[in-house]
Design a protein that fits this description.
- There is one protein chain.
- About 30% of the residues lie in helices and about 30% in strands.
- It contains 5 helices and 8 strands; from the N terminus they run αββαβαββααβββ.
């Protein structure tokens, strides 16, 4: 069983924890765009699959849901071949949260769907949510690049600029 603290996971992903363990992301490095533009960057792996999930949260349950989804995101990074996972609350609909997840390929997404931590998340989230509307998207390799918050991007062959 893998135990990952939010602080260690955050540090490994270029995120700093601020007051109250709130994640603060580093701004992308300045002045690096020109050299990167001259390189042919492409997707880290062909066949990446993303999920866009619209979650409708029960009235008054947003804070509880945020704790639940943040724990789930930590589990996904620790246990899945998850390349990216983030969420945001809608400005126009305060009880709607959007999730964005990217997996290496269809097999990675299938592994995630069969995982115990997804079942655990769905079970816990049921108390706080009305619905999860999932859209699956196959990402095009054109123009895609895997970048971290430090402004470093993965190029051909797994090298980072």
């Amino acid at each position: 069983m893998c135990h990952t603290t939010m602080a260690s996971l955050a540090a490994s992903r270029g995120v700093f924890l601020g007051p109250g363990s709130r994640a603060l992301r580093r701004a992308p490095a300045r002045g690096r765009l020109a050299p990167r533009a001259s390189l042919r960057a492409r997707a880290a792996a062909d066949g990446r699959v993303s999920l866009f999930v619209k979650v409708t949260v029960k009235s008054g349950q947003l804070d509880a849901y945020k704790r639940t989804i943040e724990a789930h995101i930590v589990n996904c990074f620790a246990n899945d071949r998850c390349m990216y996972f983030d969420y945001g609350v809608s400005d126009s609909e305060p009880d709607v949260v959007y999730l964005y997840e990217t997996y290496e390929d269809q097999a990675a997404l299938d592994e995630h769907k069969a995982s115990a931590h997804l079942a655990e998340y769905l079970s816990k989230a049921e108390a706080f949510t009305v619905s999860h509307d999932v859209t699956t998207l196959r990402l095009a390799p054109f123009g895609s690049v895997n970048c971290n918050y430090a402004g470093e991007c993965e190029l051909d062959g797994g090298a980072w600029d």
